[in-house]
Design goal:
This protein is of the alpha+beta class. It has helices at about 5-20, 35-50, 95-110, 135-145, 150-155, 160-170, 200, 240-255, 295-315, 335-345, 360-365, 395-410, and strands at about 30, 55, 65, 75-80, 85-90, 120-125, 185-195, 205-210, 215-225, 225-230, 265, 270-275, 280, 285-290, 320-325, 330, 350-355, 370-375. Helix content is about 35%, strand content about 25%. The structure holds zinc ion.
Length: about 400
């Protein structure tokens, strides 16, 4: 069978989807269950139906587009990613896996494939944590790592619950019905931009992912004592921001000295109250994000953060409350799918390297219920989650081709 990707069509679809956004181009903002997200979903469903796929949405809005296989007893082969985007993001994160997956399916249809297993394109709800503070809400529910009752408790910053918001968006089944049974998927493969610089630096067009790093995140609230910036002398101060600054540096140092090259720690948010030039900060809230492929090393940084917080608290006369938001295990990709992906690269004479995914993806959670692997393509300078995120259509089409070859092999 000859598999031919249509790069022009794929590119025009990527551009069209990017135009469904709440930000000025080239930036893309598509936050879950906002009007832009709902328009994008409707657009995608129409594209899938035009390709003859049977579309269903579950109670959280995960969208499954199925090409029925010839053997009703064969387990399903899945591919997909997400189309939600953080504020001022780019066009490719997630989208490459969804539209590249759709084009891979169409290329197999054009090539005359008669799959034995059904092929299912999956668009996950809310991969990004922007609205509800937790990433991968859709895939966590599919895998049962987020319980329906915990999901119902999630609220956005306006106090609207996930449950209300998803119902308003038209997804009103029982959240209990979202979880997929073990064995639903024979295999799941996610195509994604690397979101790091390695492929570009090595001039290798494809990365076969063998491991996905384990993420943990926390919110730390530091309470000090506010006061007049002129009136309170330095010896009387319990400045919440100065305490936060010490904690942030302690987190950085814990990651730097962890002894693991895969260990990364980031404080990306810092809210200061009352936030006035002449007022001593009384309360600070920071976000903490720590990742490693090695679970013990990841947890080691979290523990060092806790002990640093105790020491700083005692010395500075402030309080710190550490709220763990998530702590997930890493995933090993399935050797069988890694082999099929590698064989597909070789068949098309494409250079590839095996690599670790330092970012996490829906595949991390799907790995709890199915064999998974991921295929990475380069993105310029490793940039992602910013408007100048860029992947060339040649690289995207190459990824879609190898994905199609892989899906064909897995569904035979
Ligand atoms: Zn993504």
């Amino acid at each position: 069978m000859k598999i031919e990707i249509d790069p022009a069509r794929l590119l025009s679809e990527i551009e069209e989807l990017a135009s469904i956004s709440e930000a000025e181009p080239p930036a893309v903002t598509r936050i879950v269950f906002t009007p832009a997200d709902l328009r994008a979903r409707a657009w995608l469903v129409a594209r899938c139906e035009a390709a003859g796929l049977k579309v269903r949405c579950d109670a959280i809005g995960n969208t499954f587009a199925r090409w029925e296989g010839s053997d009703p007893n064969a387990r399903i082969v899945g591919t997909g990613s997400h189309i939600d985007a953080i504020p001022n993001a780019g066009k490719y994160d997630g989208v490459v896996g969804v539209l590249g997956g759709l084009e891979a399916v169409r290329a197999l249809q054009r090539g005359g494939l008669k799959p034995k297993s059904s092929l299912e394109l999956l668009m996950f709800t809310s991969e990004e944590p922007t609205r509800f503070g937790v990433g991968c809400v859709g895939s966590r529910l599919l895998a049962g790592t987020l319980t329906p009752s915990a999901a119902r408790e999630l609220k956005d910053k306006n106090g609207e619950s996930l449950d209300e918001v998803r119902r308003k968006a038209g997804f009103d089944g029982k959240l209990e019905s979202v979880e997929l049974p073990q064995g639903y998927y024979k295999a799941f493969v996610e195509l994604h931009i690397e979101q790091g610089p390695l492929l570009e630096r090595e001039r290798i067009p494809l990365g076969v992912v063998t491991k996905i790093a384990a993420p943990a995140s926390a919110r730390v609230t530091i309470e000090g004592v506010g006061g007049h910036a002129g009136g309170v002398v330095m010896t009387d101060r319990h400045d919440a921001l100065c305490a936060a600054a010490e904690l942030i540096l302690a987190i950085e140092s814990a990651a730097r000295t962890s002894g693991s090259p895969d260990n990364v720690a980031t404080v990306g948010m810092c809210d200061v109250f009352p936030g006035a030039v002449n007022s001593i900060p009384s309360r600070v809230q920071i976000s903490v994000d720590v990742r490693d492929t090695n679970l013990a090393k990841r947890d080691g940084v979290m523990l060092l953060m806790e002990s640093a917080s105790k020491e700083i608290t005692a010395r500075r006369g402030v309080t710190m409350q550490v709220e763990l938001l998530n702590a997930d295990a890493p995933a090993e990709c399935a050797p069988l799918i890694v082999d099929v992906l590698s064989a597909a690269c070789k068949k098309h004479r494409e250079k590839f390297m095996t690599m670790t995914s330092r970012a996490y993806h829906d595949s991390l959670f799907i790995s709890r219920i199915a064999p998974v692997a991921m295929l990475f393509i380069p993105c310029r300078n490793g940039y992602s989650h910013r408007p100048d995120e860029y992947a060339s259509i040649q690289d995207i089409a190459r990824g879609a081709l190898v994905l199609a070859e892989t899906l064909a092999a897995l569904s035979a």
